[in-house]
Design a protein that fits this description.
single chain, Rossmann fold, 3 domains, 5-stranded parallel sheet, 17% strand
Length: 513
C-alpha cells in the first residue's frame, strides 16, 4: 500500500460519521503532519471538539488534552500543578506535566481567547518552537497538533495578535446545511468517539520524524513559487487600496514560510516529489484574518492560478516578445518598402467622379461611381451624366478608355475621351530581398533554439498533467478546483502551439525568397 493510499484510507476513517466536516478534519490532519496548528471558528455544537478527539486516533499511542478556557483558567489547569516535592526538596519550581498539555500529542483548547497572559505566553513558545519551559528546563514537547477553537475572533487588543498569528490554518465551521446530511446526522447511532482506525494506518512517532525529513526535500517548481509571489503582490496591492472596505491583509514572512511547508506536506502525502498548482489552493485558509476576507482571498488565489500558473513559469510573456522581435527582424531585413506617388480618382460628394474640362462637348460634370465601375473597355453602355447640382443632364453611351482614369463617351455620333479628375496619392510598395547566407544561417539557429525551447515546455506540460490532474481526488483540496489548473494548462499549451506556428511562418518567409 502506497503512502497516498494509506493517507486516503486514514482520512476516510477519520471522517466516518462526520457530516460536512471533512475539510476541517483533513486540514487538521495535514496541519498535524506539517507540525502546524489550526484554528476552528464556529458556534457551539458544530463538532469542533469532536474533530480534535478523532484526530488523536490518527497517531499510534496518541494521547490528547482538552480544555475549555475561561477568564479564571490558571496555568496549573493547562500545564500541570507545581511539584510540591521538587519545591520542598530541591527548591525548584517545576510542574507535573505528564497528564496535561505538555505531555499530550493532540491538544484541543476551546474558547482560546479567554486564556490569560500567562497561558498565552507559554502557548506561544509551544506553538512556535515545540518547547515548554518548565522551571529551569526546556522540555521538547511531542505535540503533533494543536487545535484551538472559539465562536468568535480574537479581541482587537495587540496582546492577542502574536497568538492569533501562530495558527497557520483558519477554518470556519457551520451547522450542517444539506437536508440529507442533517437527517443522517440526527438519526446516526454510531459512536463517533470510538476509535475505528485500523492499527496499520496509524502514524508512529518514528514515521513522523522520517516524513519530516522527506517533506523538506519536496521540490517547489517555478509555477508554484511564481504563483505564491503573484498572490503575495496582489494581497499587498489590495491592502494599499485607499477605497478598501475590508481590513488590510496581514501576512508576513514567517507565515509564507509555513505555507510553503504546508504545501510540501500536502504534496508528500499525496505521493508526489514536488508541489503543484492544486496544492496552492491550500493557501486560502492560511491568508485570511477575518471571515469577510475569505471570498476575496479565494478569488485572488483562483484568479492567479487561472491566469498565471504555468504562464509565468514558462516565461510566456518573454517568449512572445522574443518571437515578435524575431518576426520584426526578418521583416525589416527581407522587405524593402518604398513610397510611390500615383494618381487616384477623386470622389465628389462620395457618390460621383467629376469630368475634367477638355474635349468634352456636352453639358454635365458628374458620373456616378457605381456606373463607372460597371464599365469595361469593350462594350458601350448607357450612363447618366449629371450637373453640379446632381440633376440629370444626359443619357449617353460610354465605355472605359484604354487611357487610365478616363471614359470614352459618344455624343452626336462622335466619340470623345473624357478624363476624370484625380489627385496625387502615395502607396507603399514592398520588394522582397533574399537575406545574406550568413544572416539566414543565424536565423536558422535562432529558429532551432526557439523551437527546442517551446517543445521542451510542451513536453513538460504534457508530462506534468497526469501527475497534477490525474488524481481527481486530491486528498486535501476540492477536486473540482482541478478545472482551474487545467484551464491554465490548456491556455498555455495553445499559446505555445501558436508561437511555434509563427516561428515556422517567419522561417518560410525568408527561406522561400
Amino acid at each position: 500500500m502506497s503512502l497516498r493510499q494509506r493517507i486516503e484510507r486514514l482520512t476516510e476513517g477519520l471522517c466516518t460519521g462526520l457530516y460536512e466536516r471533512e475539510e476541517a478534519m483533513k486540514l487538521s490532519l495535514l496541519s498535524a503532519v506539517a507540525g502546524e496548528s489550526i484554528f476552528l471558528l464556529g458556534p457551539p455544537g458544530v463538532g469542533k471538539s469532536l474533530i480534535a478527539r478523532r484526530l488523536k486516533y490518527a497517531f499510534r499511542d496518541g494521547t490528547s488534552f482538552e480544555y475549555l478556557m475561561s477568564r479564571f483558567s490558571t496555568p496549573d489547569e493547562i500545564f500541570g500543578p507545581v511539584s510540591i516535592k521538587k519545591l520542598k526538596e530541591e527548591d525548584k519550581y517545576e510542574r507535573l506535566t505528564e497528564k496535561y498539555l505538555p505531555g499530550a500529542n493532540i491538544v484541543f483548547l476551546d474558547e482560546i481567547w479567554k486564556a490569560g497572559p500567562a497561558i498565552q505566553n507559554a502557548l506561544l513558545t509551544i506553538l512556535n518552537e515545540k518547547v515548554y519551559r518548565n522551571g529551569e528546563q526546556e522540555v521538547q514537547v511531542d505535540i503533533k497538533g494543536i487545535i484551538a477553537a472559539s465562536n468568535e475572533l480574537p479581541p482587537s487588543q495587540e496582546s492577542f495578535l502574536p497568538l492569533w498569528d501562530r495558527f497557520l490554518i483558519r477554518c470556519q465551521i457551520e451547522g450542517v446545511r444539506d437536508q440529507r446530511n442533517f437527517l443522517r446526522l440526527i438519526t446516526d447511532t454510531q459512536d463517533v468517539y470510538e476509535d475505528t482506525i485500523a492499527p496499520e494506518l496509524k502514524i508512529t512517532h518514528a514515521e513522523l520524524q522520517a516524513w519530516s525529513r522527506e517533506i523538506d526535500q519536496v521540490a517547489m517548481p517555478p509555477e508554484v513559487l511564481n504563483t505564491l509571489q503573484v498572490i503575495r503582490a496582489k494581497l499587498e496591492d489590495n491592502s494599499r487600496n485607499p477605497q478598501r472596505e475590508n481590513e488590510p491583509f496581514q501576512v508576513y514572512d514567517r507565515r509564507w514560510k509555513k505555507i510553503v511547508r504546508l504545501l510540501r506536506t500536502s504534496a508528500f502525502l499525496n505521493g508526489r516529489t514536488q508541489t503543484d498548482l492544486m496544492d496552492c489552493f491550500l493557501a486560502i485558509p492560511c491568508l485570511w484574518s477575518r471571515p469577510s476576507q475569505v471570498e476575496e482571498v479565494r478569488e485572488i488565489v483562483s484568479e492567479t492560478i487561472r491566469k498565471h500558473g504555468y504562464s509565468i513559469a514558462i516565461n510566456l510573456g518573454m517568449l512572445r516578445r522574443e518571437v515578435e522581435d524575431f518576426e520584426k527582424e526578418v521583416s525589416e531585413e527581407t522587405r524593402i518598402r518604398r513610397i510611390i506617388a500615383e494618381d487616384r480618382l477623386e470622389p465628389v460628394k462620395q457618390e460621383y467622379y467629376q469630368f475634367m474640362q477638355g474635349e468634352k462637348q456636352f453639358q454635365g460634370e458628374l458620373i456616378k461611381i457605381e456606373e463607372f465601375n460597371r464599365l469595361d473597355t469593350q462594350e458601350l453602355q448607357v450612363i447618366n451624366i449629371y450637373d453640379e447640382e446632381q440633376v440629370l443632364r444626359h443619357r449617353l453611351k460610354a465605355r472605359k478608355s484604354q487611357r487610365e482614369h478616363a471614359v470614352e463617351i459618344v455624343y452626336n455620333a462622335v466619340e470623345f475621351t473624357c478624363p476624370l479628375r484625380t489627385h496625387k496619392a502615395e502607396r507603399t510598395e514592398v520588394i522582397l530581398k533574399k537575406p545574406h547566407p550568413l544572416v539566414a544561417r543565424h536565423w536558422d539557429e535562432k529558429v532551432a533554439q526557439l523551437q527546442e525551447y517551446i517543445r521542451q515546455q510542451q513536453q513538460r506540460l504534457s508530462a506534468e498533467l497526469p501527475e497534477e490532474l490525474g488524481h481527481p481526488d486530491h486528498l486535501f483540496t476540492d477536486p473540482r478546483l482541478a478545472k482551474i489548473v487545467r484551464a491554465n494548462q490548456e491556455e498555455v499549451a495553445v499559446s505555445l502551439h501558436q508561437l511555434l506556428l509563427r516561428i515556422e511562418k517567419a522561417q518560410y518567409a525568408y527561406a522561400s525568397i
